[in-house]
Structure formats: structure tokens, C-alpha cells
Amino acid sequence: MPSKGFLKVQTVTSRAELPVAGATVTVSTRRADGRRELLNLQRTDESGMTALVTISTPDLANSLTPDQPQGWTDVQIAASHPNYDGIVVRDVQIFPGITTVQELVLVPRGGLPTDLGETEDVTIPPQGL
């Protein structure tokens, strides 16, 4: 039986870890046909946090023994802000009944105001159950 997991995202600046308010955060998953499905789109608040996102997950029993199918839902999180380089984090694991807090470190852009910046791409390896 499908369950629910939860996700909060916090955007901070590099090194100083100060909150980045107003960052656009998208959360998506890959459908069976290989296309991405947008699950959530929102902006961070003054604390650099998103509101809680509820995500469908496999049943909790799938994550209790290694011989079961994958016991979590993989999501991709992307964040962007006009003053910072973007970041994409792939394969963030959302487990049933758990609130995952994913911190995204945004690097300030150092070039001209028209600088498009770079996007950091991070992939998280699966949990070894």
C-alpha cells in the first residue's frame, strides 16, 4: 500500500550558510515512461525554507528487508535565484513516514549582472539496505 514521505528544502549561501530567501525550488520525479513529473514548485521564505512537500512513497515494509523492491521514492530538486548559480540534486531519497530536510548551498554569482552563471549537478547514491 502506498505511503507518504515529506520533504523540506533549505537554501543557504556557501560558507556563511545564510538563508537565501526567494529562491525558486522545484521537486520532480521520473515517471515510468522516463519523463519527469513536476511534484512541487515554490519559493523559499525569509529563512531559506520551503513549505513541507508531501510525496507518495512505497509501503514502509519495502524498506525493512533487502530482498524487497526499493523502499523509497527518488526525487530531483532544483533551485535557482537571480543572484546565485543554480543547483540540481538528483536521487534524493524520500522514505515513508520520514521528513527529509535537504540543504542546498547556493554560490553567489561573481560576474556581470547579465552573467548566466553555472548550475551544480549532484547525484546522491542509493541507500544500501
Keywords for this entry:
129 residues, mainly beta, Immunoglobulin-like, 5-stranded mixed β-sheet, 3-stranded mixed β-sheet, 8 strands, 0% helix
Secondary structure elements and their pairing?
Elements (H helix, E strand, L loop, with lengths): L2 E11 L10 E7 L5 E8 L9 E5 L15 E9 L2 E11 L4 E8 L12 E5 L6
Parallel strand pairs: 1-7, 6-8
Antiparallel strand pairs: 1-4, 2-3, 2-5, 5-6
Amino-to-carboxy terminus distance: 20 Å
Unreliable runs: none
Structural class: mainly beta
| Second CATH tier, the architecture | Sandwich
CATH H level, superfamily name: Carboxypeptidase-like, regulatory domain
Summarize the biggest pleated sheet: 5 strands, mixed
According to DSSP, the number of beta strands is 8
Radius of gyration based on Cα positions: 16 Å
Tell me the β content.
over 45%
Helix content: under 10%
| Order of helical and strand elements | EEEEEEEE
CATH class type? Mainly Beta
**Count of the separate structural domains:** 1
Would you give an account of this structure?
By secondary structure, the protein is mainly β. The chain has one domain (3-123): Immunoglobulin-like (Sandwich), CATH 2.60.40. The chain has strands at residues 3-13, 24-30, 36-43, 53-57, 73-81, 84-94, 99-106, 119-123. The protein has a five-stranded mixed sheet with strand order 3-2-5-6-8, with no helix packed on it. The chain has a three-stranded mixed sheet with strand order 4-1-7, with no helix packed on it. A hairpin with a 2-residue loop joins strand 5 (73-81) and strand 6. The chain is elongated. The chain starts with a strand and ends in a 6-residue tail after the last strand. 24% of the residues are buried.
